[in-house]
Amino acid sequence: MNFRMLATASAAALMVMQTQAFALDDRYTDADGDMIADIPSDESQWVDPSALIFAYTPVEDPAVYAEVWAPFLEHMSEVTGKDVQFFPVQSNAAQIEAMRAGRLHVSGFNTGSNPLAVACAGFRPFAMMAREDGSFGYEMEFITYPGSGITSPEDIEGRTMAFTSETSNSGFKAPSALLAASFGLTSGENFTPAFSGSHDNSILGVANQDYEVAAIANSVRKRMEARDVITPDQIEIFYTSDTFPTTGYGVAHNLHPDLQEKIGEAFFSFDWTGTTMETEFQNSGEAQFIPITYQEYWSVIREIDAAMGVEYTCN
What we know:
Helix content is 36%, strand content 19%. The chain has helices spanning 11-21, 62-80, 92-100, 114-121, 169-183, 199-207, 218-226, 257-269, 276-281, 294-297, 299-307, and strands at 51-55, 83-86, 106-109, 123-130, 138-144, 160-163, 192-195, 213-217, 236-244, 248-252, 288-291. The protein has a 6-stranded mixed β-sheet with strand order 2-1-3-10-4-11, with helices on both faces. A 5-stranded mixed β-sheet has the order 7-6-8-5-9.
């Protein structure tokens, strides 16, 4: 199914919805119209910290990923001349709040939380992982365990379905839109929602039969299988979506422009060969960082949000 078809409003109406729902918080400006916060024009607002704080999207065991990201953070330190520290985050909300409060400088926000991070935290995404041939993305999957009796999305009715968090694209927003638009199933009415907090938790929950069914990102599942956290025979996949963009990487809008440029250089000059990054992410196909723009690459995600009536309210 093409999720671009989920937005039933006319093109003009959808543009109005997006302007209203996806406007930046009042503390940011977008003079060039690229949909992300501008670097402040007042140099006194530029931040040049002695140490850079980096966070990866929330995972079940942050300590594992602190080790995975270590060679990249060392490379970033060499390029920028700054100490770079890994910051383990427990939720998408905590990650967004950390950048909004100035405690997080460089980060990877998952697909669904990217628009909220852009609107509310001044996040400026510029990179994404991709395969060697330049292709990228992941698919949303509906998974269950063998013997559950669930073989199609229609079978979710009357069951308990695990989502990750309300900011997640593949863990909540896309599956909710799909189930409502294509199968007439509404969360809380036709099935009971449960929120696990992360894709790892949802996958483990299904594998251990704590959840009957879950919506997950298959890139996470592939990495968990490669690490023998789960085995393929513990789950059954009964639905796979079209391809979505994956985690977007970027910086806080008010970092010194020269520092932002050096951070970008660190992403695009990093050699994955023989590193823990290669070992971990090759299991889901990634082999390099490629440049992206939020305006283009996240358009389908904004359309899903618009179809669901999502608005980004910044507290």
